[in-house]
Amino acid sequence: MPHVPALAARRRSRIAALSAAFSSALIVAFAVTGCVRLSTFDPNGLWKVVGEQCVPNARDKGEPGPCTTVDFQKRYAVLKDINGRAQYLLIPTDRVSGIESPEILYGGSPDYWVGAWDATRYVNAKLKTTLAPTQLGLEINATERRSQNQLHIHVDCMRADIADALAPYRHDAAGAWRWATLEGKRYRITRVTSLADRSNPFRVVERDLDAKQSMSAQTILVTGAGPDTARDGWLVVNSGLDVDNGSGSAEGLLDHACAIARPQ
Question: Residue 263: what pLDDT?
Answer without folding.
Answer: 59
